[in-house]
Structure formats: structure tokens, C-alpha cells
Design brief:
Helix 1 crosses helix 3, helix 3 packs across helix 12 and helix 10 packs across helix 12. 35% of the residues lie in helices and 23% in strands. The strands form 4 sheets. The protein has a 6-stranded mixed beta sheet with strand order 1-2-4-3-5-16. Strands 7, 9, 10, 12 and 13 form a 5-stranded antiparallel beta sheet that branches. With 412 residues, the protein is α/β, with parallel strands linked by helices. The chain has 12 helices and 16 strands. It is globular. The longest helix has 21 residues.
């Protein structure tokens, strides 16, 4: 070792800026790299090129996750990274920051002349944001992708995952081959923005999630009768939107009944047909996302939602269908890794808060393959999945230094 490894803040910022040249300037001035879009494919090519310039052994798997290995090519690795895809009009930090920090840590190690005894594997996972209802890259590595799901997964516009992959020259039948053998990855670490207001509100630079909430992704269809808005009496309508609205007003009561203070139910995407100002809506299709740290609470809320939907549909003369698009169970992160991160933070003089992640992340899928843990840095005003998403650079530097310290311990 020629010198003590240290994060190069300017180099890290330039790397993050390079990632965010792809998909920039959407309709809301956010970043647009949905999974398997042209921008998503292009940023993966660019990032792979950056890792090749650093002398890493670069590979891709059947799900189109990109890897750069530093160290022994045959030994079990410590994997570090996050995702490069975004939601539509997303922010500059969600996922991308974790990928950039992972590569910067390797660059700092190489610059200091460190050859790790345990190889480090930088990863940019594919399709984490759930365009098709899951976290494809990490689920594929963990062996959680079933042939049925792979064949039937669609996005909100009805595009099949398999078709989206084929349109980019990828073979969906290669996805099952992405599974990693047990023991091939010793640990997985992911740095991410908090995407919530807690750390900023409490003035704490580092969050250490002890677990992550699960996610139930539902698609609800209410069907009534499209009719003229001027000639159809109010008491003779089968108004799909009226049913949707009444269901939405019952969500706070469902949450209040749950034995949890972190349960969430969200209606995030709605489509009305025929969606015309002078027509009573005959159909409403909408998404429902249920989250909690307890699977029992999640399933209980799901049952409440099903009962409420059935009752409201009957009241308004509607038919209803509810499809469970995906289910990601809540998880506890590896206690030993969380303790290691806590000790490393203390060694750097950083105050760290143990907490629960309210968002889904690759780390909660990877826990089924190997010990996994996360580092959070604060989000300004708690905003994420929006162009206003921002994290202070001083906080980012602290998180990156903590990741580097953890990797040095795990790969020595």
C-alpha cells in the first residue's frame, strides 16, 4: 500500500454527472432511463466502458446487469453497487449514486495500491425500479425469477418484459442463467439516498437500515357503463371513477386499523376510459402499492382492501378485478454487516441512525443470496422519484467514505 485510500470527491461527482448525461431533460426536466429503454441501454454501455478503462473484468448477465470485478476472477466476491435505471422524470441520485460510489471505492483502492484479498465486484443491476413489477437484476441473481413471471410480466402500458428485452437485442430466455451459485457472493452492500425526510430532519449524516418494508403491487380494474354525462341521472350511473374515489377515501381508515406506524397504501397510477370530459367513466384501472415491515400486516391490509373494493363496486353497480402483479416480502438485513457498518461509522466519527427502509431496494432481494446491508445518506426535504431529488455533497462524501471503510474491512 502506497498511501491511505481516500474518496476523490471531484472524481466521484464527475462519474455521477457522466451517468446523468443519459436520459436527461425529460418533460418534467427529470431523468428518464426506464428499464430496457434506449437511455438505459446506453448508460450501461458507457458505464461498462468506464470500468474497462479502470482495468476491471467487465461482464453482463442474462438479465443485463453489468459487473466489474477487481481482484481474483474465480473467488467469491464482495458485491457493491445499485441500479442505473430510473422512474419516468426521476432524480439524479436514486440508484445512480450507489453505482458511482461503488466504482469510486474501487478507484480509491487501486489508487492506493491495494490488491484486495477478497475480490470486489461493482454491479449496476438491471430494471430495479419495477417497470415490469419486480427488481429483475437482483431477483435474477438470487434465483427468484420464475418462468411464468418472466413470460407474463408487463409494464403499465401493457408492454411485455420479454418484448422489451427483444427490442434491445436481448434474449429473455437467458435471464434464468443469471442466477449466482450460493457462496459465490460473500456480501452485498448498497449505498442509497434515504428517499425520506428522517435523516435530514434529525441532522444525521448516515442511516443504517436494519430492514426494508415489503411491497405488494396490485392492479385494480373497475368496470361500469360509459354514458352521456348530461343525460344520465346521477342515481342511474355505474361510474367507475366514483367507485375509485370512494375506495381512495377509505384508505386512511385501513391504515389506522393496522397495528403498525409505518404501513402505507398508495394509489399511484390511474387510467380512465373513455377519459372524456362529457362522458361518465366506464372503466378505471389503477395501481395500489401496499408496504409494511411485517408480512402479516401487509396481507391484512390487502384483505381489507379487497373487501372494501368489493363493497364499493357493489354499491356503484360495478364489476371489479384485482390482480397481484408482484409481491416482495419485508426483510431484515444482515445484523453482522449492520454492526460492521456501525463500527466503521463510529471509527470515522460519523453519527449513524439505525432505521427501517420504507422503499424497496436490491439489497432486500440479495439477502436471499448472501448477507446484505445498506448505507443511507439524507435526501433534501425527503423528496425522491422527482426532478427535485437532491442530496448534499458533504453528506454524499461521508457515505462514500463509510462504504470505502466497510469494503476495506470486508476484503482484507
Amino acid at each position: 500500500m502506497s498511501c491511505k485510500p481516500k474518496i476523490n470527491s471531484d472524481r466521484l461527482r464527475a462519474l455521477l454527472d457522466g451517468i446523468n448525461r443519459f436520459g436527461a431533460g425529460g418533460p418534467g426536466e427529470g431523468y428518464n432511463r426506464p428499464g430496457f429503454s434506449d437511455a438505459d441501454m446506453a448508460v450501461r454501455d458507457w458505464f461498462a466502458g468506464e470500468m474497462e478503462k479502470d482495468g476491471l473484468a467487465v461482464t453482463r448477465d442474462g438479465a443485463n446487469s453489468v459487473f466489474g470485478r477487481f481482484g481474483d476472477t474465480g473467488a467469491p466476491s464482495v458485491m457493491v453497487g445499485s441500479h442505473l435505471d430510473t422512474v419516468v422524470d426521476g432524480g439524479a441520485f436514486d440508484g445512480s449514486l450507489g453505482v458511482a460510489v461503488a466504482l469510486e471505492c474501487v478507484r480509491a483502492m487501486k489508487e492506493a495500491g491495494i490488491q484486495p484479498a477478497v475480490p470486489v465486484e461493482v454491479v449496476a443491476t438491471s430494471e430495479e425500479e419495477g417497470r415490469f413489477g419486480g427488481m429483475l437484476g437482483s431477483q435474477a441473481m438470487a434465483g427468484l425469477v420464475t418462468p411464468e413471471w418472466l413470460a407474463n410480466a408487463t409494464d403499465a402500458d401493457g408492454v411485455l418484459l420479454a418484448d422489451a428485452m427483444r427490442a434491445q437485442g436481448l434474449d429473455p430466455e437467458a435471464v434464468p442463467g443469471a442466477v449466482r451459485p450460493k457462496g459465490s457472493v460473500r456480501a452485498f452492500l448498497e449505498l442509497h439516498i434515504e428517499q425520506g425526510p428522517v435523516l435530514e430532519r434529525e441532522g444525521i449524516a448516515i442511516g443504517l437500515p436494519e430492514g426494508a418494508t415489503g411491497i405488494v403491487n396490485l392492479q385494480v380494474t373497475l368496470k361500469g357503463t360509459a354514458n352521456h354525462s348530461g343525460t344520465t341521472p346521477m342515481d342511474m350511473r355505474a361510474d367507475a371513477f366514483a367507485g375509485l374515489a370512494e375506495i381512495a377515501t377509505q384508505i386512511p381508515g385501513m391504515i389506522e386499523s393496522a397495528p403498525s406506524d409505518i404501513a402505507r397504501i398508495t394509489i399511484g397510477k390511474v387510467e380512465l376510459l373513455p377519459n372524456h370530459p362529457h362522458t361518465v367513466p366506464g372503466e378505471a384501472v389503477f395501481s395500489v402499492i401496499i408496504r409494511d415491515a411485517s408480512e402479516a400486516v401487509m396481507r391484512g391490509l390487502q384483505r381489507l382492501f379487497y373487501r372494501a373494493t368489493a363493497a364499493v363496486a357493489a354499491k356503484h353497480g360495478l364489476t371489479h378485478e384485482i390482480e397481484e402483479k408482484s409481491f416482495i416480502p419485508p426483510v431484515a438485513f444482515d445484523a453482522g454487516l449492520v454492526d460492521l457498518l456501525s463500527e466503521a461509522a463510529e471509527g470515522l466519527g460519523l453519527l449513524a441512525k439505525r432505521m427501517i427502509s420504507g422503499a424497496g431496494h436490491d439489497a432486500q432481494t440479495m439477502i436471499t443470496l448472501c448477507p446484505s446491508a445498506m448505507i443511507f445518506v439524507p435526501s433534501r426535504n425527503g423528496i425522491s422519484h422527482a426532478p427535485e431529488e437532491y442530496s448534499e455533497w458533504s453528506d454524499i462524501e461521508k457515505g462514500a467514505e463509510l462504504m470505502l471503510a466497510a469494503l476495506l474491512r470486508l476484503t482484507a
